[in-house]
């Protein structure tokens, strides 16, 4: 790991530490302060956007564990989010489970479903696996829209407001703290997971699965474990979507969503927890920002008829350009910026 | 590093430019807020699909809503309505964000569009006590015990289906009906009601999903032929419905088409061409080719503003009168005192039937039912135009 000059690690423990320098602690404090201050300075509209970003961060971290760290491509993200959302929503609405317990159950059920649909990964790789997971997306959504007795089938599932220790969580401000807490825990969990033997086994499978099995990593076990853990994160994101929006509709979890999440981790940086965070924020905030911009530009009459087209063009163009200029994503760009200042005035 | 610096400079320049432009353009609205009647201004939020999969029908609908508000404000016979209409691209996440912005802006009611946004916001409008009207006419939204703030301003999909089957029953007793529908909650919404109604009427009834990505419906029609279907009820939007009509024509099948609301419009006739001839439509809001007193206000408004109602079509009228209904609720709420979501809801429930001048059945909400219309006229395509087939029919 790149570190500041003059920092020497004399033990494995020090080498594995998440932070080494004062600058890193300072940045952490700055980030925490920003997170704490943001809801008080942004408009209510942007607070909703922040909440959507927070939930997307959890889902993107989950997907990055699978795609970025373990190298198993998944197009089933939307379906797994639906499993989490419906499990949590149904348990809360029909069984009256308290908030927290339903979310935990949703994580477990989604993890189990993820593992089940991950079984083809033992035989398939790359594009073939992508198509196999695409099937899971279609199957899950079909079941959700047709299993009337359980999901309510065609109509939306209304979820009661969440309560925590007798305090009703309602409104964007209250949810901001819940979502921020969950996203924080997810970030910590994923970062620490990658420091363990399990995390190193994931990376070994991604880099070369045959070599990994030669050195004693059981691909069967670890690929399924990757699907299990990744889907648990996605289940959490799904459950929060359900409880936060007070309603679950299948249209929230279409194939577009699966692709959006893949775009998040690719733009943010594959195989990086921070990348998943940057990517989720980028992919949700940029279209919103473009909407805002076009709203303020709407007085320009000659642009008016083409605005929707421009709005759709810009996010696509941003992805293409960011991939051309930095295929390793925003996380890598940030790393380069940090290196630039760390090494200044020297280039290398 | 120079290339990076250039890029950063370009980005900053773009931001500054955008900021400057937005600063230039923001004062317009205030100056145009003319008229002496500005005793009270209420805000209404609008969610439409102007660039998504249903943009073809949502755009004229949204124009109708906007047109009515403009006309209403010019007339000035009630509190001024400030409508913010945005494109949500049929993306549920965008609808959620826009809704929270409207809520923060202090809107008193929301005009929505389709099943996507209506279902997604059902829980929130109930919790925030904001009346919500949209062009999603699912029967599940009509029960005030479940969805106290959703108002269905037309005949529900289920009632449209019942009316269609009653007409079929009168035309041909014991006929087989093939019910073709969009493969989604929107499409499936009236199928249960259809099954039950067909049983009562002694009709054969089978449902056929129309997959969104299909380019033709010949396989489904084969099965409908095997069923012996003489009537095809379509619960889908006009483009796939027109494709289905063409397939029926090409295959030389002897099947009569009965369109429900979203399949029956001018676009369907235009796209299906001669295959549309003879098709019947259960259309809660009548087509512009059938004159009605209620068509005069939007027609005059458009003529004044350089438009043409026949070009805009029936969805324009649909949007116009849905907004007219909401405006009536707002006006009555204002007469009682402060305009709030609750006051509008009470006004809409207490109000006598709202007359649309023969464009549709009168709209009547009560505290027990938010199903606005109980009946609909039936129309038929003759020589490439929708013409009246029956007078107002109600579900028996």
Strand count of chain A: 4
Strand percent estimate of chain B: 15-25%
Low-confidence regions of chain A: none
Give the averaged pLDDT of chain A, no decimals.
87
Structural class of chain A: mainly alpha
Query: How many distinct domains of chain A?
Result: 1
Give me the CATH fold name of chain A: ABC transporter involved in vitamin B12 uptake, BtuC
Largest sheet of chain B: 7 strands, mixed
Class of secondary structure makeup of chain B: alpha/beta
Q: Output mean pLDDT of chain B.
A: 86
Q: Helix and strand succession of chain B?
A: HHEHEHEHEEHEHHEHEHEHEHHHHEEE
Large-scale geometry of chain B? globular
What gyration radius of chain B follows from the Cα positions, in whole Å? 23 Å
User: Distance N terminus to C terminus of chain A?
Assistant: 16 Å
Biggest sheet strand line-up of chain A: 1-4
Q: What kind of oligomer do you see?
A: heterodimer
> Which series of helices and strands of chain A comes N to C?
HHHHHHHEEEHHHHEHHHH
List the strand order in the largest sheet of chain B. 7-6-8-9-10-12-13
| Poorly predicted runs of chain B | 1-6, 8-38
